[in-house]
Records
---
Amino acid sequence: MNRPPEAARELRRAYLFADMADEHLAALVQGLHDIHLNAGDTLFRHSQPAERFFFLRDGMVKLFRLSPEGDEKIIEIMQPGQTFAEAVMFMGTQGRYPVSAEAVSESRLYAIDQKAFLNLLRESHEASFGLLASLSRRLHMLVNQIESLTLQNATYRLVAYLLEQIPRDVKTSPEVQLTTPKGVIASRLAIQPETLSRILAKLRQRGLIEVHGNHITVRNVQALRDLVHLPPQD
Amino acid sequence: MNRPPEAARELRRAYLFADMADEHLAALVQGLHDIHLNAGDTLFRHSQPAERFFFLRDGMVKLFRLSPEGDEKIIEIMQPGQTFAEAVMFMGTQGRYPVSAEAVSESRLYAIDQKAFLNLLRESHEASFGLLASLSRRLHMLVNQIESLTLQNATYRLVAYLLEQIPRDVKTSPEVQLTTPKGVIASRLAIQPETLSRILAKLRQRGLIEVHGNHITVRNVQALRDLVHLPPQD
DNA sequence: CCACGGCATTGACCTTGGTCAAGCGGCCCT
DNA sequence: AGGGCCGCTTGACCAAGGTCAATGCCGTGG
């Protein structure tokens, strides 16, 4: 598998590879496998033995768990440039995926062999540190998610989600383009699609946002910010 | 600070230190700080700058988040032999604790300086791998917690908790000694103390358990297991 | 020995968000 | 163009668990 140096540049977008020495990254690139998924395709399933982890080149992939009754909770929606399932490597021999993964839209990925990567970790401290940083960030994100699931209500979670979609520097009345179907967002926020709809309707009635399909205009950013930081009110 | 070799043996209980080379561990031991906490004492607070992480020698420490209204959600209850707050080291310069920590009962800990440990990581691959394994385990635990918070009801969570307290090999009618006040367990499971009480009462009425203060006799393990694996029912 | 304070239990009531069902609009596909 | 499907919305109803309040139960300290 002979690859252009573009692949290395592409991988550097991920924190995991950002600081890795060129020669290590080059070696890694030789072992990459291309994966192409159509929307709805499954990448792996919860509790399958894990032998590879992934870098998302483009498209969108959801990581989720299913209840025995078939209800779905999306843990994370992966964006291009991110790696996932790296942690499983360290769950002892025969690590198993703790979640399922499925393409939300057509996606291209690189698969990275765990054994090869473990060997690389033994030689490269930058790689180890990159991985530690990745895991720490994900850990922190999960703790925040637990907090908002347990200490905050559905409106709070949705508003927080909307605010996250607004780039830092925007000062003008911001536009939010929802990048996934609303049902996916609902599952990510652990609410039903009906509830999502109702909350948006209520925010609209209060004049805080305008909804046009999957495009949302935020009319009053400050009011939304207040909703999230001050005592939540109906 | 001159320490007996006991300290090294003590630290090896934690996965993080289990495989570390003797000389590295010995160096680490020289930099330990002793900490003593009475029940209710605070170790650190959410969003404080983090310069150390911790090994719990004995006692019990809760990691939790507070809502603006003062409601508490316990993320994890640390047990003797475990390390915590190691991940913060990698959240870039000026990492901040993502949770608060407070002693549930009188506790003794070792504090480990992050800078010193980072230096050690640069020399010891075992240390890096130990840390990666620790973080992976915690990551997995958090994912499981999110699943049970979002896809399962309060009864399921409590029953799962009770079953976790029963050692693997017990075949006889098992005894569970609750090691913390029920209010603490409730917060860990993200339910109110009243609800915990009611669920225990219902399980009692169904003849599945007997409750004597903080001591619980499980009368029908299999029925509890079924509750957790089959469709949850009232 | 009694009084107090903290934890736990129980009851009555309420709120949030889930469930079920109907309707609507766009999009694709023939 | 028509039909069917899918995603979304809206309404009516429901239930799990939260809230508030009263009471009981110890264990501790004066």
---
Amino acid sequence: MSQATSQRLTIRQIAELAGVSIATVSRVLNDRGDVSDETRELVSRVIHENGYTANRSARGLSAGRTGLVGILVPLVYPAYFSAILAGAAEALSERDLQIVLSPTGHEHDREVSVLDRLRGLTDGALIILPEESSEELERLLDRGYRFVVLDPLMPLDERIPSVSAAHTSGADQAMRHLLELGHRRIAQITGPRGWLATEDRRRGYRAALAAAGILPDPALEVEAVPEVDPGRAAAEYLLDLPEPPTAIFAFNDNIAIGAIQAARARGLRVPDDLSVVGFDDVEHATIVTPALTTVRQPLAEMGRTAVSLLSRLLERHRFETLHVELATRLVVRDSTAPPRSA
Amino acid sequence: MSQATSQRLTIRQIAELAGVSIATVSRVLNDRGDVSDETRELVSRVIHENGYTANRSARGLSAGRTGLVGILVPLVYPAYFSAILAGAAEALSERDLQIVLSPTGHEHDREVSVLDRLRGLTDGALIILPEESSEELERLLDRGYRFVVLDPLMPLDERIPSVSAAHTSGADQAMRHLLELGHRRIAQITGPRGWLATEDRRRGYRAALAAAGILPDPALEVEAVPEVDPGRAAAEYLLDLPEPPTAIFAFNDNIAIGAIQAARARGLRVPDDLSVVGFDDVEHATIVTPALTTVRQPLAEMGRTAVSLLSRLLERHRFETLHVELATRLVVRDSTAPPRSA
DNA sequence: AGCGTGACCGAAAACGTTTCCGGAACATAA
DNA sequence: TTATGTTCCGGAAACGTTTTCGGTCACGCT
């Protein structure tokens, strides 16, 4: 191995070593027909012996596809996103597509510029919780870029492919559970106002109350950033109310965990003195004490579904359903019980 | 906007629209000198008006760099990995590098083939917990690929750049803490045998015992896959011992959480009846009850450090330190206390 | 012998950039 | 005046593939 310069090998050098043309090497590389078994064998050996791999930029340029798919995600760390990511990654790898991961930090402008970059680099993208308006996304579509939105923050135009979870039904299940346990004074800690998920779940919450003949009390609906600390603060506010709730329906598991912490800090016991229901069912929900009753979103499944939608788009199948809503399901654990007074 | 075919624009069309050569457009795109303000202004406007972005494959081919960095990670979901990923992502985005994310599922062969792919696509890579032998990695190095290993599983050749955490010192801090609290019978749930981290921490564990004049009891060292359930099983075994430990030093937070669950299931109280120390300090550690005393690994910082090492390699700076070990630090929370008998 | 048919393979164009090189226009210095 | 820069710009090569198109050859048939 007199590998003087450790330059990358090119297809031309492999062709030379094997005594064939570059076209033939390319055919072997891509498993095309029109090569005799003998030649194929020979070329494969040379390729292997020299550890050659094709330059993907050249391939992308020549073939017009890069085999790359962008994933735009606000943050990498939170379990919510990494669960979706994990599902998407699995499905993409099955399709031999590579992931270009782009965190956007919830920043609109950064997201726009990342998308611009991605347009020249990837075949398509998954956009999780996009900060962009429907109009902006439509423009992207008109420019010929193919993408799928995961869990849209706001209502999007019909033409924009999207995957989301059944928020209203999930909220309804959670509320029905609490109502069946006998709760009457049920608070809701919502997500940020205006988010689709927030409003859909609010609808479910109110509808369930109405169905049970309970007049919704505006004081029992409070908004929080979907993280633990804001959740704790919101719960503290609710527990300080003159007439505090006996149950809290939280926008996500983080908020629910904050609520449990708030209760504990006040010497209240969950679920005896306060029932708490979360949303998402990330791993945290099983770690916390008491284990959280929560509405499960099939996050990995959402990722996989988005990929299958996208890959159909990439193959130019136009006629498919552009919108998928996956079912949510209540998982009952230990954070809910009948109210004390019942 | 009579955008009949929504084909992507090329630099040639932009040049035509602006009435200049493609060389000039390229210069504007890349902020090179040698363009009059006037022309630059004009070209920028045309670019913007038409929403043009360069084809990265072509750029990569021509310029010899793709601006892509691979990240090989066993799994995406676990907090340990996403924390590192988050740090690396931040640092890469500051350097205008894009991430190609490749989960390998802890599978050696998959990792090898992913690396092969990445060699033709990216400028370099971060390899987290590589499954590969030092020899395999050296071969990669010899082929001219640039990469940094994060948290090596086994000892690597000097030439291979790596970033890791101070395992031995971390273990020592944890043990010292338990010893100072008065524990004498301290068990260890280790990670998989042979892992560098496992052996280093084992060394710290034994050294601390020795320094305290305690003879290590082989029965108190048990191995577990670093997840919650195996952790619980291992703890159950320890608690069933004729003479059970009063404290457990776990290989990571997941195992520690499993240990807490095992104790609770037996009616033991943590930390009163059993002290537990974890390792990593992922978010779980603050969610669990009682909050976990644990050795903090600066995961995001490790990601950032690896990126800064890699980017120096990419710029062909050869002389830098190739090995970085970041300090670990004990974070005392609520899962440790003096033993009952003390 | 002549012809058609597959099977196999090579030449060369094309993909969209970057960058080297040199030329035009103009200013400045001797 | 000529020589010498400077500044700005365009032509064209180069990057490493894929893919089209056509050519060669062996073979079997008429």
